[in-house]
């Protein structure tokens, strides 16, 4: 005999057949504009600022700024200080290392020509000279 009481009993095999809606239905959504997160590239330290070693000086996509004295260049074009000191930005005639992949990518049309670029330099603090020269006896 089949009754409503048999359906509501958890041990009944019909109890496992009942399903509830797992998700609500929704309308279509428009795809958001994928401009991405801004990378905040550019100058990180200005001319005349004091920096410690390893400090980021510039992040860049194309080669706008070149590494100068005591400045290293990462694989992604980032310039960083190698030693603690004062940042100096200068505009100099450039003769880049044509073996570097970044130089080949950005200046392939200007090979072996002279042009001016901005260089980042880090000048160390002058060391105190606390010694006196004594005549030899």
From TrEMBL:
Q: Which UniProt keywords apply?
A: Mitochondrion, Ribonucleoprotein, Ribosomal protein, Transit peptide
One GO CC annotation: mitochondrial inner membrane
- Please tell me where this protein is predominantly located: mitochondrion
Gene Ontology biological process: translation
List the Gene3D superfamilies.
2.40.50.100
Molecular-function GO terms, alphabetical: structural constituent of ribosome
The answer, when asked if Magnesium is one of the entry's keywords, is no
Where it sits in the cell: the answer is: Mitochondrion
What the record says about family reads: Belongs to the bacterial ribosomal protein bL27 family.
Name-wise, this protein is Large ribosomal subunit protein bL27m
């Amino acid at each position: 005999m089949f009754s409503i009481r048999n359906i509501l009993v958890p041990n009944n095999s019909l109890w496992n057949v009942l399903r509830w809606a797992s998700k609500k239905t929704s309308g279509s959504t428009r795809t958001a504009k994928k401009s991405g997160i801004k990378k905040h590239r550019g100058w990180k330290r200005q001319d005349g600022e004091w920096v410690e070693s390893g400090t980021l000086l510039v992040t860049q996509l194309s080669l706008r700024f070149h590494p100068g004295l005591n400045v290293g260049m990462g694989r992604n074009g980032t310039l960083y200080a190698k030693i603690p000191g004062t940042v100096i930005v200068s505009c100099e005639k450039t003769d880049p290392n044509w073996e570097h992949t970044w130089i080949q990518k950005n200046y392939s049309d200007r090979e072996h020509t002279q042009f001016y670029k901005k260089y980042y330099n880090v000048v160390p603090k002058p060391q105190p000279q606390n010694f006196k020269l004594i005549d030899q006896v």
